[in-house]
Specification:
Blueprint lengths: L1 H19 L6 H19 L8 H30 L7 H4 L5 E5 L4 H14 L3 E6 L5 E7 L3 H23 L1 H9 L19 E2 L6 E8 L3 E9 L2 E20 L5 E11 L7 E6 L4 E3 L2 E10 L3 E8 L7 E7 L3 E4 L6 E9 L3 E2 L10 E2 L3 E7 L5 E7 L3 E3 L2 E9 L7 E6 L7 H11 L1 H13 L6 H33 L5 H26 L9 H17 L6 E9 L2 E9 L2 H21 L3 E8 L4 E8 L4 H24 L3
Parallel strand pairs: 4-7
Antiparallel strand pairs: 1-26, 2-3, 3-25, 5-24, 6-7, 7-8, 8-9, 10-11, 11-24, 12-13, 12-23, 14-15, 15-18, 16-17, 18-19, 19-21, 20-21, 21-22, 25-26
Helix pairs in contact: 1-3, 3-6, 6-13, 8-11, 9-10, 9-11, 10-11, 10-12, 11-12
Length: about 650
């Protein structure tokens, strides 16, 4: 019993872990979330798929076998105890009970028997009467013996629940895998190329699989995640996604979503059209189809691509499709572009102190740029400018590995909320001819009339701009460290930054003139825009790619995520749970009580004995109450009997 309780406790703890720790996720997700050490430990213990772990199924199997044997061995005894009245008890044994007493009575045996029978019936006892050889009469009564059934129900419930767990744990599949008949597929290959040893037939006993369908498409297979790979589950019917609908709250958060599906079954005369939504599955041939999630199904994206390394600021349009690939450049500089994700709504809290109200900031897209050696950087670009610290910025995040956090580039938006103003300023400050022109115009504004001094200043300013062009603030810092004494570096840095800002303001006016725009006003807003632009130019040296993808438009195509489950053990678990509740209720709340009343007419007494399956205060109270009632009953009868 102690060992069985220990195993049940272990299963309970494992079930808690299986509830708290998300099960059957791709291994990469666990590595990112917990790190390599904890991932390996969880995998070794089988905690990433607890309910299908070999040790979990073995414990269930052991409990089914051992508890079944226990029930088979003890049930006949329990049923015999349940039916027995124990009318063969002797006077000697009754007098050995801890709860017994003798009650005097002047009544004849038949009268006492009649009165005691009425009393037991009124107390809801069932009883048997036995006439003994010495003339004594024994009334053997029982109440609450259904408590014995609680033992049977409770232990049978454990068998039924564990059996249901074994059915849903798909023990036959585990055996096939151990024997080598089934193998986990880890390659990213087309479904039709998955070998038979990695496929599950339509008659598979139990499974929990996933299917992702873009709108207008259909499929008859689903994928069962298993450790670091998957198995293909063939379905006895085809599921098609006719339409996917989603409603949002005013903030942009999903409110509800549902899918119109078409089920085509060769055994049916016509397809089944139905709608499934969250917590409202459709069941066909014992397979429940749940609405689990949604994602992009291949949205078409339109970008304006800015080549940051080009000699001019011209951009060109390119198209991309989510979950597809493209390429940029040629030769050793060629990059593969992987369009991974598109999100139409993004709910962010952009307040400075984090206490503001989250709101929808519009679409973004995630893509990867992979070089010829296979190394990739991931980028996330927002379509609309984000309001940060009261100013508008085009935001792009970059990270080199999925374990890293995104580092964000903030490009200031111009007065028209476009990126063109920044790109024009950057191009002007990268053009050697424009740099000479900037330095010349700034030098002309010097109050000094010394031509030689102006020429030296112009030359120094050109070198400053060329240095910033080569490496941004980092390059300026190196020059200051190499050429300026340590105690003068801070002052020199302030001077350089002031000159750089003055030159950038002049460059901004030149860039606007080149685009046939009116001069920018010399106010605080222009100064802030120029300063933010210099910061963004500096950050571009760490951006990792010469391309900036500006999302301009999109055509949304949704995909619905379904979870398909065949769970034959589910009803067994429900049945076992009901049996467990009934059994526990019977064992804890039904008190078995047995009463013996031995009428001894020769001695004019009645021997009262009482027992219970649990000796507690309730038994003491019941015995005292019954003793008082019987004493009063007998005394009443004596008073009313004629002399």
């Amino acid at each position: 019993m102690r060992f069985a309780v220990s195993l049940l406790t272990l299963l309970g703890v494992a079930s808690i872990i299986g509830t708290v720790l998300k099960q059957n996720e791709p291994y990469q997700n666990y590595i990112i979330k917990f790190g390599q050490f904890w991932f390996e430990l969880f995998e070794m213990l089988g905690l990433l798929d607890v309910y299908h772990a070999a040790w979990f199924l073995l414990i269930l199997l052991f409990l089914v076998i051992s508890t079944t044997l226990c029930v088979l061995r003890n049930t006949p005894v329990m049923l015999k105890e349940w039916r027995a009245y124990k009318e063969n008890a002797t006077e000697k044994s009754l007098r050995l009970f801890s709860h017994k007493t003798s009650l005097a009575t002047p009544l004849a045996s038949t009268e006492a028997q009649a009165q005691l029978s009425e009393f037991l019936t009124a107390e809801r006892y069932t009883f048997k009467t036995k006439q003994q050889e010495n003339g004594d009469v024994l009334l053997a009564a029982r109440l609450g013996t259904h408590q014995r059934l609680g033992y049977i129900f409770t232990h049978a419930a454990i068998v039924v629940i564990c059996f249901g767990g074994l059915l849903d744990g798909n023990l036959p599949l585990k055996v096939q895998e151990l024997l080598g008949f089934k193998k986990i597929e880890t390659r990213d290959i087309a479904t039709r190329k998955v070998p038979e040893e990695s496929r599950l037939g339509v008659n598979n006993l139990s499974f929990r699989a996933n299917m992702t369908l873009p709108e207008g498409e259909r499929d008859n297979v689903a994928f069962v995640r298993v450790r670091d790979g998957y198995l293909v589950q063939d379905l006895p019917f085809t599921v098609g996604l006719k339409d996917f609908r989603i409603e949002h709250y005013p903030t942009g958060m999903p409110k509800s979503f549902e899918s119109d599906i078409v089920i085509t079954d060769p055994e049916l005369d016509k397809p089944i059209e139905t709608t499934i939504r969250v917590n409202h599955p459709y069941i066909h041939k014992g397979i429940a189809i749940y609405q689990s999630d949604f994602q992009d199904g291949g949205s078409q994206l339109k970008f304006k691509l800015w080549n940051l390394a080009a000699a001019n600021q011209d951009s060109f349009d390119i198209d991309g499709v989510i979950l597809q690939k493209g390429s940029l450049g040629e030769g050793a500089q060629k990059l593969s572009v992987e369009f991974n994700e598109f999100r139409q709504f993004n709910i962010l809290n952009l307040s400075k102190d984090g206490k503001g109200k989250p709101h929808n900031v519009g679409p973004n897209t995630t893509l990867k740029l992979r070089n010829a050696s296979g190394q990739a950087r991931e980028y996330v670009n927002y379509m609309q400018p984000l309001q940060l610290d009261g100013r508008a910025y085009f935001v792009s995040g970059m990270r080199e590995t999925v374990q890293d956090e995104f580092k964000y580039l903030r490009v200031p938006a111009d007065d028209d909320l476009e990126i063109d103003g920044f790109m024009g300023l950057r191009q002007t400050m990268r053009n050697d001819a424009s740099i000479r022109d900037i330095a010349s115009q700034v030098a002309k504004q010097m109050p000094s009339g010394n031509p030689q001094l102006k020429a030296q200043f112009e030359q120094s300013l050109q070198q400053l701009l060329l240095t910033f062009k080569r490496g941004g603030y980092s390059e300026l810092s190196k020059i200051i460290e190499n050429a300026v004494p340590k105690d003068q570096r801070e002052q020199a840095a302030q001077t350089y930054l002031k000159l750089l800002n003055t030159a950038a303001l002049q460059a901004y006016q030149i860039s606007r003139a080149q685009r046939n725009l009116a001069p920018a006003p010399t106010d605080q807003a222009t100064a802030i825009f120029v300063q933010d632009s210099l910061n963004a130019m500096n950050d571009l040296f760490f951006y990792g790619t010469p391309y900036y993808f500006q999302l301009k438009n999109y055509t949304l195509k949704q995909a619905s995520g379904f979870q398909l489950t065949r769970s034959p053990g589910q009803n067994w678990v429900y049945l076992g749970s009901v049996m467990l509740v009934l059994g526990i209720f019977s064992m804890f709340y039904i008190r078995e009580r047995r009463v013996w009343l031995l009428i001894k007419p020769t001695q004019q007494e009645v021997l009262l004995a009482m027992s219970s399956n649990r000796k507690n205060m309730d038994l003491d109270q019941d015995f005292v109450r019954m003793q008082q009632q019987l004493t009063g009953l007998l005394q009443t009868q004596v008073a009313s009997t004629p002399v």
